[in-house]
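Example record

One chain of 233 residues, shown exactly as stored in the release files.
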Amino acid sequence: MIKKKIFLVEDDLNFGSVMKSYLEMNDFEVHWVNDGKYAVDEFTKGYYDLCVLDVMLPHVDGFTIATAIKKYNSAMPIVFLTAKTLKEDMIKGFSLGADDYITKPFDSDVLIYKIKAILKRNQGGGKTAIIEDILNFGCFTFDYKKRSLVFNNDPEVKLSPKEGDLLFHLIQNKNQVLERNFALDKIWGEKGYFTARSMDVYITKLRKYLKQDINIEIVNIHGSGYILKVDNE
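Predicted structure tokens for this chain:
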């Protein structure tokens, strides 16, 4: 089972260390940043299912970090941590798209429960949450559940599970970069050399399926990933 990844920003070294350990004990993978000025840059380097942000941080506060994260990935679930109970702060947090707001001190079990509930609601969170099963792009219709790809009114093409998952993520990010490591992590569960080569093979297969539409192209972005370019959309 692939562990859900938590991006944690907390400047209190003792508290942050304890929280990281507790989250890991509950089967989460945690990347912890202890200074707000490094948070956004660190976030953009990784692939996460949920963010836990302290509000009061040195240099850059949690609200500013959340605003930047939401611009980068509007679907990313966020939980704020704060020692303050001001109504104005809570309203500000929720107005920025927070999924929850927890006041310190808090019961660690409650935090775990809230995180699991948010992830369940978001079907895994992040920019790959499944919104719908039938996806249209160019002259194609893709049924994610049935792994069925149809060009105009031609007979359907049945995709393998990995072909279907990879195409789904490409469509969800069409005309944007689908990061290679993100796709490997979500579909293959690891980012090794052989899985990367395997993904290249599946990309080649998808290109063959999609070549019927001259307005669609899968472009390789060296060192980053792939873009499903769909013209006229």
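Notes: The longest helix spans residues 193-210.
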